[in-house]
Design brief:
The protein starts with a strand and ends in a 7-residue tail after the last strand. Mean pLDDT is 93; it is low at 159-164. The protein is built from six helices and 17 strands. By secondary structure, it is α+β, with helices and mostly antiparallel strands. β11 and β12 (196-198) form a beta hairpin. It has helices spanning 25-38, 50-57, 128-133, 137-144, 155-158, 213-226; strands at 2-5, 12-15, 40-43, 62-64, 71-72, 75-83, 108-115, 123-127, 147-151, 181-185, 187-189, 196-198, 205-208, 233-236, 243-247, 251-255, 264-272. The chain has a single domain (2-273), classed as 4-Layer Sandwich (Double-stranded beta-helix). It is globular, with a radius of gyration of 18 Å. The structure holds succinic acid. Residues 81, 91-92, 109, 111, 123, 253, 255, 266, 268 line the site of succinic acid (SIN).
């Protein structure tokens, strides 16, 4: 197994590892170590079934239910992320960490490329340790004591509020139409690395706890702009039949919507922590 950095901000490509059969304990540990070091791993040219994806997800935690989209038929825990030729908006086309509006957001998510456009459809990843470290000591002091309130109700959250205005064939809505809300520290200490990551995102964070949305907005807007600066970002150019796994505790991602007229289909598994220590 070869691990080589994909960009200076984060990410690594893992070559010479066949994920279609069960990994031995040593390889699993090497993958987990690389994951802690690089925050996002890309495994090109893998021939995998939805059951394989769930087995691989199991190396990182438990398969979780994504609350806003139906499962792939016959495969609970696997979501099909589709942008069809005639669609105008995509899924995940906003900087975010996954489902921070839930009490225990997923530690990681896995995406497998099934159908790719001839060009475009890349995913951007940003390093939230770098974003935190680049803040001034004064702002870090202020933010360390703060919690952020996330909601699924923001317009940008899932795109479901945009139905009727923009065309998207993928159904992204909660079964009972309920909005979800959860509160998390703005300065998130990663349970494995012990490093601090900035943990607010423009898709879901609406205010600081104990402050109004109007009071919170200027500082949140500053942070949302700060965290996506190019030096913190690695761009993943997909290849056919490839997997990316990212750590939601210390990264954010953004799916580019730049391939109008073409189809992109990905299979996605959301991964929750197996225990409170790694949450
Ligand atoms: C997501 O936000 O999970 C989708 C990312 C992508 O499709 O590139």
């Amino acid at each position: 197994m070869q691990v080589r950095p994909l960009g200076s901000a984060l990410g690594a490509v893992v070559d010479e590892l066949n994920l279609s059969t069960e990994l031995g304990a040593d390889d699993r540990q090497r993958v987990l170590d690389a994951f802690a070091q690089y925050q996002m791993l890309f495994f090109p040219a893998q021939s995998l079934t939805p059951d394989d994806l769930k087995r691989i997800a199991g190396y990182f935690g438990n398969v979780a239910q994504y609350p806003y989209a139906a499962d792939l038929a016959g495969h609970p825990g696997v979501t099909e992320v589709i942008k069809a030729e005639h669609d105008e908006i995509n899924f995940g086309g906003v900087w975010h960490s996954d489902t921070t509006y839930t009490p225990n957001p997923p530690v990681a998510s896995l995406l497998y490329s099934r159908v790719l456009p001839p060009v475009g459809g890349d995913t951007l990843f940003a390093n939230m340790y770098m974003a935190w470290d680049a803040l001034s000591p004064g702002l870090q002091r202020l933010l360390r004591k703060r919690n952020g309130v996330s909601t699924s109700a923001l317009r940008s959250s899932t795109g479901n509020n945009m139905r009727g205005k923009y065309k998207r064939s993928m159904k992204v809505e909660h079964v009972d139409n309920n909005d979800l809300t959860a509160t998390h520290p703005v300065a998130r200490v990663h349970p494995v690395t012990g490093k601090t990551a900035l943990y607010v995102n423009s898709a879901h964070t609406k205010n600081f706890e104990g402050m109004t949305e109007e009071e919170s907005r200027p500082l949140l807007e500053f942070l949302f702009t700060h965290l996506k600066q190019p030096e913190f970002v690695t761009r993943l150019q997909w290849q056919p039949d490839s997997i990316a796994i990212w750590d939601n505790r210390c990264t954010q991602h953004y799916a580019l919507n730049d391939y109008h007229g073409h189809r992109r289909v990905m299979h996605r598994v959301t991964i929750e922590s197996r225990n409170a220590e790694t949450r």
